[in-house]
Amino acid sequence: MRTWTWIIGVVLVVLIAAAAWFVFTGLLGSQQTPNNLYPSSNTNPFSGSVTSGGTTTPISNTSTDPTVFSKNFYTWYIKNVSTNPAALLSDQFAQALAADWLTPAFAASWQSEGDAMDADPFLFSQAFDASWLPGMSVSTLGQDSASSTVHVSFAAPSSNAPTPTPLDVTLARATNGQWRIASVTPAQ
To answer: At what angle do helices 91-100 and 104-117 cross, to 10 degrees?
Structure first.
């Protein structure tokens, strides 16, 4: 009799755990995803645009000026991840990064680099705040025909807000002449 009580107890625990798992994964599945945050298209919703208040705004990644390219990237990136941090887990977001902004080598490694440092590999931060954008400053540190290094810094909107790490972003010119991000490091 005692063995049956123990077996029934274990079965109940397993059933409760399974039910909790299905409820939990069902709730996660019903949250907004990048697909339903950006309505209206068969194309990647993250490609070269940001959505705010239901309006999608194109952001060009075709500038020949490395400072403009970098400013456009960080505007696009911060607006997307600050409104929807789950975007970082989206295949569509990763595809947009790879296709529109990154060199093939960096596209292959950015997620593992972020995991290794437990921080965002483009901001060296665990937070994303669109209020950093008005205080963004971008300047060229060096440039030749094939590469450029730009310094990107952000100003916090108030003295109480955290200030992101200043960054040095290395860009490489793709075969089509457009800039792509080859690496991001904390500024020296």
So the answer is: 130
Residue-wise pLDDT for 119-178, tens only, equals: 788 888 878 888 888 889 999 999 998 999 999 998 877 777 777 789 999 999 988 888
pTM above 0.70, yes or no: no
Strands 167-173 and 147-153: antiparallel
Backbone angles phi and psi of 24, in degrees to 5:
-60, -50
CA distance 94 to 80: 12
Of 82, 80, 74, 111, the residue nearest 94 (C-alpha): 111
User: In sequence order, which residues have a C-beta less than 8 Å from that of residue 181 and are 6 or more positions away?
Assistant: 73, 101, 102, 103, 106, 122, 169, 170, 171
Contact 138, 70 (CB under 8 A): yes
For residues 35-45, b (16+ Cβ closer than 10 Å) or e, as one string? eebbeeeeebb
